[in-house]
Amino acid sequence: MNVAFCSDLSHLGDWSWANALKDKIALSGTDSSLLRVTNALSGQDDFHVTIITNNKGGDNEVSEVHQEELNCLTESIELCIDKEIDIFVLVHDGSRMSKAIAQKAAKYRIPCVVWAHNTPNREFEKLYSKNKHVKRLICVSKIQSDRLRDRPIFDKTEVIYNPLPVEKYTNKDCIERVDGRVCYVGAIKKSKGLDKLINVWPDIKDEVPGSELLVIGSAALYDKNAELGPLNVGKKHFEERCLIPVLGDTRSKAESMDVKFMGLMSPTSIREVLHTSTVGVVNPSTNGSGENCSVSSLEIQATGTPVVGGRWKGLRETVKDKKTGLLVRSESQLKNAICKLLRSPNICNGMGSAGVEWVNKNFRTEKVIQDWRKMLIRVENGEPARPPEFSLSRSTLKNASREIIRLLRLHLFSRSEVFDQCLDTVRKYV
């Protein structure tokens, strides 16, 4: 089977497959998942994998993935026709490019799978739903898929988690943990919740003397040309509003409060820091866009480190609350959770062991690649999608309402456009 993946990688700058596969360059969860999936899938029998990007990086001498570079990615469909591609996988980014490519796939009748790390908005939902050549919308968690239950696109959804090479995260060198060390992993922007952690940090310091905070990440992860503030980690307006009022306007002032900004780090370096940490923190927000399948939360757990994050969206699925970490709903709960773990080494050890087992069972690369393989074969064979079944254990009141709407549509109204128009009004209150 010839499969092509298409993604905008212009933000990666100067990169190479060798450094990416050796975990030597900083990557977002979306980009790391793309490279891991394409590389592992190319090693499967009867699969030939091509990646189409606008930045293919340096020479590829370490992966079996075939690379094609286009200045304009909207030309990828024509390239797929020339290369006799069987299935085209579009990494959805909500851009006009995604829209144009999906429309071209319909025009040229190329079977298309949309990989949605970020949930499509209403415009894209309708586009992908009505386009009969879009065969699947791949969600990266069941909770993400649940948010689409009341939409026609739900019938095309399947869930495949982001992969993690768990074996690389084992503490083979027996690195000792530093008492009181907290490590935040994530982009430095409002939607990732670092501001909430910084707000409570002085209180954590008061309750647990000797604690320190290492912050891994930078706004430059998504935008190499971003104008950073005086702390050189976040965009200027974010630093001025969310970091400087608490930490001061220089790194030396922040370090006087035992907060150290580590900047962008490769997965290899992140693992080393996490192995020395007592607690890991990932997106403690409980509003906004949230996480769908946080790779950072998987990395933390895979190193045997208990994770603290927001009880919101995909983190409720990637983290087992009270088993592999603690999920919180407020800044006060965030402070209490971190302080509790810093004072409780036995709890940390238990959660750490459970986290390694949890990630290995559900998110290891070998398992995820088999899910991709099976899904692509079903698409090639013309089989229908397999959306996740409704589950009360992961449901919210809003998602339960969406399931009721889905059942009404399925059994009474059967995709009626009038019903859809009525639902657009109802959704404002659901």
Written account of the structure:
The protein is globular, with a radius of gyration of 22 Å. The strands form two sheets. The chain has a seven-stranded parallel sheet with strand order 3-2-1-4-5-6-7, with helices on both faces. A six-stranded parallel sheet has the order 10-9-8-11-12-13, with helices on both faces. It contains 17 helices and 13 strands. The two termini are 43 Å apart. By secondary structure, it is of the alpha/beta class. The model has no long low-confidence stretch (mean pLDDT 93). It has two domains: 190 residues, Glycogen Phosphorylase B (Rossmann fold), CATH 3.40.50.2000; 197 residues, Glycogen Phosphorylase B (Rossmann fold, 3-Layer(aba) Sandwich).
Major sheet? 7 strands, parallel
β-sheet strand percentage: 5-15%
Bulk shape: globular
Number of domains: 2
Query: Which fold name fills CATH's third level, the topology of the largest domain?
Result: Rossmann fold
Count of extended strands? 13
